Amino acid sequence: MSMLIKLTQAGFQVAEDLFIDVADEEIIPAGSVILSLTRFQAEGDALVTAGRAVGVRIASDETVEDLAYDLPRLALVAVVFPKFRDGRAFTTATLLRERLGYRGEVRAVGDVLREQALFMVRCGIDAFAPADGATVEDWARAAGRYRHVYQRAADRRAPAFEERG
Amino acid sequence: MYLYDAIDKDFLADRAAEFRGQVARRLAGELTEDQFKPLRLMNGLYLQLHAYMLRVAVPYGSLNPTQLRAFAHIARTWDKGYGHFTTRQNIQFNWVKLGDAPDILDHLAGVDMHAIQTSGNCIRNVTSDPYAGATAQEVDDPRVWSEVIRQWSTLHPEFSFLPRKFKIAVTAAETDRTAARAHDIGLKVQRGPDGDLGFEVMVGGGQGRTPYLAPTIRAHLPASRLISYLEAILRVYNRHGRRDNIYKARIKILVASLGAEEFARQVEEEWLKIAEGADLPDTELARIRGSFAPLDFAILPPRSDVFEAAKASDKAFARFVRNNIKAHKQPGYGIVEISLKAPGATPGDASAEQMEAVADLAERFGLSDIRATHEQNLVLPHVKLDDAPAVHAALAAVGLATPNINLISDIIACPGLDYCALANARAIPVAQSIAERFADPDRAETIGELKVKISGCINACGHHHVGHIGILGVDKKGEEFYQLSLGGSGAEDASLASILGPALPADKVADAVDRMVEAYLAIRQDGERFLDTFRRAGMTPFKEAVYVDAH
Q: pTM surpassing 0.90?
């Protein structure tokens, strides 16, 4: 079992990853799984109906709105950062939270580095699989670097203009 | 000008502390250059040909004397005694040591300055009108909206890893001093049909290897809806802009491939889904607007006897007035342009002593306001005409009274192969050779407004696509050649330049410009600028003048 960093009410914590990330060519194993969007659309319904915990992996070029109707049935949504510089998953996460009202886990996977921790948290991502070996302390420090922020975002943190009140 | 409060100051301190930690990790070998690169770029630190270069933001080109003195201090302490003002109203220090960069950022934070988002694929420093708050032309102060955008775009959670860099310009005057249509987004503040304040929104301009002028995608956006509309544009771009090829990743390519109409439709569709709550509250708009309240101008007669007497008795001052002093909205005041284009100088360079002299003048005579222009000059926007002779004399004493604003030697040039790792050819020596050729100020004034813009490579940092005469350095089998183009404009009459003919070697460029100028003088009609004559007469007379020997 690999480890994850999760953002909970109590702050950042290490958590065991209970899900198996399933590639499209692999046979779906027993237990909780994460499938690609395409695979979920083909085979997800049967798994969910059978009571399995299923998450969906959204590639950075996929349209998260396609998942809207299924969101209440999902255990988590994994947003993929194929490269550090590919910022599409920030929009995916924002839309999941702000437009589609998704309350479940949104997990950052792929080229996930601590330098993006603040941006990820602000876009509503609450589970992280760091690719740079960052510890939970590193992650918390990076995400908490700034005492203030300037924009409204999915994390509901009060922006500067509200602090100024 | 906008004053940073405790929140803004905390933010910069946090940023500087973060970068200090990152540099320490790099110097200790915990980060490789590959891992460090995106981090240093987020703080404007480039690795150039000979050294690190630090690009410091001058938000919408607005500075106070303390900030300009801080630049002088940085130039003297951590660089070689000068700084370089860029075509984006920023300043670059070309000889920075990595280990010193955290101290420099701390020093900057101490005067409310920073290098945030001066590089990387994020929303860069906003360009605005250097005459803001001083020109009678403007319908509103564009700095208000520039500051709104500065705050909104700073470490934006969703839009800090865009397909490519993103530049926004805000202008509020008929005369466009921002090159708005050459930006990813150009915003023109205007009054709508009902007198309401709003923006004409232009999207998809840019230079580089595929230049485009931004088409208007919305004729009038209510001012209060600016942030939600920008969010819609950026979201469409973040999702659909190309990421497979950095040369096709700017928003201009997306707009051009979809067509302006379809792009606009997608933006509007997205915008309708964004709630009005995404906009800035009116109270915050009012707070920011309050920072730009009209200054405490003296009530003066429009005519200054001191000014007129100096003009009559001092030819150098009279020439300076003709070219460098522009109309101010307040009677008895003028806008003083300070040229950083003295003959033989590097366009945009200012020494520590010069920066300090300008800071002193701003304090004594200029209501402590200083601007940097995208044409790489400085401006004292509020000088009493009574004080203009003293300001002129003080500028002359430090080599800053060159009376050539908008004339042929007021050249934009990128740093070129002398500094830049991307360049194919040198730009500065070419600029110098042209400036020297036209060093005779009478001749330069006879020629009139003529904008020469030089880029050392296809990335077009020297804006050659929008030069009346554009010059592009190219590499031909290891030799530097220069491709000339004509008819560009970055102003309100924006257009892209067309290529004149085969590229020329460096030592023929000034000759070619000279011949084109002579051709223009021979055929110009009453009051035409070079650009107007080109637009009327076309390429032929200029082509013949330059390539006559080739036939």
A: yes
